[in-house]
Amino acid sequence: MLPANAGYVTFCREVLSSSPLRGQHDLRLKTGESPIQTNCDILIAGGGLVGLSLALLLSGAGRRIRIVDRAPVDEAAAPDERHLALSEVSCRTLEGLGVLQALGADAESIRGIHVSSAGEFGVARWLAAERGYPRFGMVAPARKLLAQMKKTLLTRPDIELIAPAGVEDVLADARAVQAAVDKSATRTPVRAPLLVVADGAESSLRTAAGIDAERHDYGRTAICCVVATERPHEGIAYERFTRGGPVAMLPQPRGQSGSIFIVDTQTAGALMQLSGRDYLDQLQRAFGYRLGRLRTAGTRVCYPLRRVVARALCAPRQVLIGNAAQALHPVGAQGFNLGLRDAAALAQRVRAAWAAGQDIGHVGLLTEYAESRRGDRNATAGLSHTLAMATTLDSPAAGWVRSLAIIAADRFEPLAEHLLLGGMGFRGATSDAARGLT
User: Fold this and answer.
1) Residues 6+ positions from 333 with CB-CB distance below 8 Å
2) How confident is the model at residue 245 (pLDDT cuts 50, 70, 90)?
3) Are 139 and 257 in contact (CB under 8 A)?
4) Alpha carbons 295 and 331: distance in angstroms, whole number
5) Nearest CA among 249, 250, 341 for reference residue 289
6) Cβ burial, residue 422 (10 Å; 0-12/13-18/19+)
């Protein structure tokens, strides 16, 4: 289970009592106080997929939204071969923003899911059409999705993107958060009712806010690349568990698949040094021949796998979302989907508070947000960690357990439906954004 956030008020007091600035500010809001002048109505630190999604979800409310990101806006990005398996809830949210459909032929529907375990019995197969769904979700290249979000964002007059720049020297007082925006060695003060921390798993702002994180290094690395296959994928997403780690093949347009090959970190280094043909041979040996022969492989990029889960979601006038709140193992493909649900849930509360003339940085609102996210975080992060640890067990008994679990998921309908709905993002209350009510 993840740490609860019920003690948020106590946490705020502890942070202030241990601060060298204690006594200089009071978190209590006084009744009848008039609003202060601020530089923006909400400040977002981090212009990745989740931070940009939040800004777009808040756009149109007649407020000033400012995003500060360390990556240059128009710089050619480093190679990013991640292919995101978007849940149905994520698809609906991104379609509501006009982002997903703008990708056109670069996105592919997931019309089926196939789960197996190498050298062990048991296979689970689910087809969306047989269950009355048009799809389980979609696959989109992370790099192109980010570029489309930035393109959309730059058309919104109420959103200001400052990059490359960083947010530093954060100080919360009773009515706003003060910080400095550092851009090209020039520091500009900024003041806003709320700072949203979306600066990634190794968030410096999370640390500065006094929020600790639970960490686990899996000792594994994910190697990602696009592969062309002999047989058409027919919209099927494959997940195959092996003794070395899971292998995923995600359907892509033009007969290609996005491969994710998870191995121990030492092996990953050797695989990255192989020629394209030799690498394909290793990937083929792990995945098998369900898609026929693997013909070609694109650029390979590797990502070390760690679990980083914040022990709280809030600090005075600050809230964590996305990887700053929780960075998960990619098995089950729920990391970005969970982060997008964070953004949608927070946007819904912030927009409601703005409409009611309320303070969006008030401890009560942030506590309610943190409590509302607890169940989804616990279920998603818990399942991700359990699956990740289960794939590292290498014994006959572990193989039997894996096989029986796969068979149960395939044959026991209530379990199958529970897993599929959870994978599609339907955990707890569905956000207004996913229901087209933004």
Assistant:
1) 84, 85, 248, 250
2) confident
3) no
4) 25
5) 249
6) middle
pLDDT digits (tens, 9 = 90+) for 366-392: 999 999 999 999 988 888 887 777 766
Q: What is the pTM of this model?
A: 0.86
Quick one: which of 41, 66, 94 has its CA closest to 359?
A: 41
The vertex-138 CA angle with 137 and 144, nearest 5°, equals 145
Measured CA to CA in angstroms, residue 71 lies from 160, 203, 322 at distances of: 15, 14, 17
Give me the residue label for tokens 């190697």. 223
Dist. CA 43–CA 89, nearest whole Å: 26
Cβ–Cβ under 8 Å, residues 254 and 345: no
Spatial strand order of the sheet with 166-172 comes to 166-172, 177-183, 186-192
Which of the residue ranges 12-26, 66-80, 84-98 has the most confident prediction, judged by mean pLDDT? 84-98
